[in-house]
Amino acid sequence: MLIRAAVLIAASSLAHAETAGYRSPDGTLYPARPGVVAVLPGGARVSGEALGVGSWTLISVPGGAGDTALAGFVHAGVDYAAPVFTGLDGGPVVPTRDVLVGLDPSAAGRAALAASIDAEARGLGLRADVSAPWAAFDLYRVRTDASRGDDVLTLATRIAALPGVKFAEPDMLFTGRSSLIPNDPLFSTVWGIRNTGQSGGLPDADMDGDEAWDTTIGDASILTVVIDVGVQQDHPDINQVAGFDATGQGTGGDPGNACDNHGTAVAGCVSAKINNALGTVGIAPGTRIASARTFISNLSCNGSWSSSASWTVSSINFATLIGARVTNNSNYYGFSSSSIESAYATTKAAGMVHFASAGNDGVSSSTYPASLPTVNSIGAINRYGGKASFSNYGADIFVTAPGQDVLTTDRTGSDGWVAGDYVSASGTSFASPYTAGVAALVLSVNPSLSAAEVEDILASTADDYGVTGRDNTFGWGVVNARAAVDAARCEVDLAAPFGLLDLADIVAFVTLFGQNDPRVDFAPPAGVFDLADIIAFATGFQSGCP
Hints:
By secondary structure, this protein is an alpha/beta fold. It has three domains: 14-174, no CATH class; 187-487, Rossmann fold; 502-543, no CATH class. It contains 13 helices and 20 strands. The strands form four sheets. Strands 1, 2, 3, 4, 5, 6, 7, 8 and 9 form a nine-stranded antiparallel beta sheet that branches. Strand 15 (326-329), helix 8 and strand 16 (353-357) form a beta-alpha-beta unit.
């Protein structure tokens, strides 16, 4: 007969839990998360992080005061308060009121065992109801009326020591990550988001987009303006809002002639819809794009277009008016303009992040406007993890992204590049919106970030494909959506390098706190900067980031 203690912490002592943790019957140690408790509010009013399951709420408390905190919450009228442990995915693990009990199949006297469990519960001042919903597995459930999670942990330990018990463990509330594979029928060919080696490619030479989607597919409030020849406004597979025509032709953001095809393909890289059983998917499918038709294609359909400087300025102004946080310009200007440069610089200072394609000439410089200091120049990689042969490179390159053989949206029906609704295309034109889409995901989880902070996150979390550090081939590396989103989620990670909590974050907190900056208003009441915010920062810093 196997008898195994289910918990590592001492009876009724969360203080011990804060220096130890919970060890499950299979031997896995889940470290304690000091300074955090989970509560079921009941009749009490509480403020904290909702877990999304029922009314469970995570609340920060001073580190080392866990046992006192549990008692305090119960006294204040919450139904139940429990210590919090750290799961294998970095998420919270919380003991509920129930205990799951596995019996040795050869054990006899189940009625006597139920009586023993009841006696152990009564010894802790609890009532216990033993039921057998999974008797076929020799698995039983003990429901209690506990108001404190440490009592449940103690009860599990005592039940585990009873004769005939194989194991006992609290019925833990926990988080995890799914491996989202959308039902869009062409997704399997979208190697830039999930590279499984399709067509001989290098597995994982991608943006880890599907892993980022386990956290967010993007927020509809985050808008990316596509500065191009127009985007088909009624395309069934593009998530978008009403567009704008800066050319004066009155298309409302739609293409204006048979050769205005480029913008629709660019837009799909950002926000082609997910899980609609249709076509492909963009890297930030829950966000939306807005078309700013800024160019009029040459009717020879050779890829050239006509425009004026004021049209670009008007398009950037449109982005400001609709509250866009990101712009993408996958074009090569034959002209530079102080007005355009000013518009880009002013809006970046106000929080807008700008991206543009580096160019497809295979030379060591970026085309305009990617060459502007306030615009991020994006190079392209192929499915094998190397620089795409056509991609420009050099000192201007910020990061790189998939840009060769990209499956994306085309204008529908007989319009567009091909006689279908989707097209495979190559160019830094598609690496740039992919990167813009990752920026949109970052802002979806942390919209308070400045443009510079978004850029720092993208740079510090990129996969370093070249020599160590920044290089002229890949820039800071290949953009990584999963890592960027995880870095943006960590509120106490206030300074570069993102993903690492260090002295720079402490200095940033002190500076921002002194400025009453809302980014460090971590604890209620909102708008008040006091000791509670300092404690919350210290707790988060000690706990680490996802």
